[in-house]
Design a protein that fits this description.
This protein is α+β, with helices and mostly antiparallel strands. The protein has one domain (about 1-110). Helix content is about 35%, strand content about 30%. It is built from three helices and five strands; from the N terminus they run H-H-E-E-E-H-E-E. The chain has helices spanning about 1-15, 20-40, 95-100; strands at about 60-70, 70-80, 85-90, 105, 110. The chain has a three-stranded antiparallel β-sheet, with helices on one face. It has a two-stranded antiparallel ribbon with strand order 4-5. A hairpin with a 5-residue loop joins strand 4 and strand 5 (about 110).
Length: about 110
Amino acid sequence: MAGKAKKTRLEKAQALLDQMDAEELAALQQAIETHLTASNTPSPANKGGQVGIAQPSTASGHIELKMINGCGPYKYKRVLVGGRLKSVYIGKATQADIKKYGVKKGRGTTKT
């Protein structure tokens, strides 16, 4: 029965896709990619199992550099998923990243 329910939702989604314009489809694509990344589900284009984002879009979130246990800084994408703020690890920050984003040290302080 669960398979039938999923098929019905999929059919409904496909019917809605036919009614969307290019701008709405692009926004939906970004939302799906963000959801897949935040839920640690590899997308079909990312079959290697790596969940990190090479060039993250900040359209639905922002980039934050964090020091973890005195090490780092590490680059994270912060996105809202299901009403909760999630951190998605991107990788070690470069000097250019540090100049661009600053480093978050402790609660609410940012070094630029």
